[in-house]
Amino acid sequence: MTLAKYPVTVSVNNLTPLPCEFSSTTERIDVTSAIGTREPDTQWSFVDGAGHYHAWARREAGLFLPTLYRRLGKRAWRCNVCDAKVAPGYTARSASSGREYIPGLTEYRIRAKPLPALGAAMLISTPRSERVSVRLIAPDVTMFGTGHVVEPFVIVSTDLHRCLIAAPPTLTTDS
């Protein structure tokens, strides 16, 4: 996905939006031998003991489990909220030829274009690797999440999501 064709602005830590360049890349993970004869069951859903809903979701790069995670080196899926073990649903698939891929990590790179007195001082003074709140604003979509400052005016994130509400909230600060 790319929003580069739109006039895009970025608000960092709820400061005044700055114009920015936005790009994203999603790694492809070869799972030809790992998947075997199973594929995600798009009709599967599950509510864990704490009442958290889980299901397969679709994005441009393919199916994923937005409410589950796996610890590095572990096979079990766990709830992002309560850490309960969850076994995602799979179905048998027909044999196919060729390689099979699933989407890996998506990295979003945001390069703010500083304007005098519009949040530029904050981005210059933010230490590298500091975690910040990020909101990308385009005419037809708003994305939000967290990211890390990797150099002045550059933020990298693997955690941006489309805002589901029709009209995203305006920038406000609590007093």
Count up the helices. 2
Order of helices and strands: EEHEEEEEEEEEEHEEE
What is the 3D shape?
elongated
Q: Give the integer mean of the pLDDT values.
A: 77
Compute the number of structural domains.
2
How many β-strands, per DSSP?
A: 15
Major beta sheet, strand line-up: 1-2-12-15-14-13
Low-confidence blocks of residues: none
Helix proportion? under 10%
* CA(first)-CA(last) distance: 37 Å
Sheet-strand content, in percent, reads over 45%
What structural class results from the helix and strand content?
mainly beta
Rg value: 19 Å
Main beta-sheet strand count, sense and barrel state: 6 strands, antiparallel, barrel
Summary keywords:
2 helices, 175 residues, elongated, 6% helix, mainly beta
Structure description:
This protein has two domains: 9-27 and 104-162; 38-92, no CATH class. 6% of the residues lie in helices and 46% in strands. It has helices at 32-35, 120-125; strands at 9-12, 18-30, 38-40, 45-47, 53-55, 57-59, 62-64, 68-70, 77-79, 85-86, 90-92, 101-112, 131-137, 142-151, 154-162. It has a six-stranded antiparallel beta barrel with strand order 1-2-12-15-14-13. The chain has a three-stranded antiparallel sheet with strand order 8-9-10, with no helix packed on it. The model has no long low-confidence stretch (mean pLDDT 77).
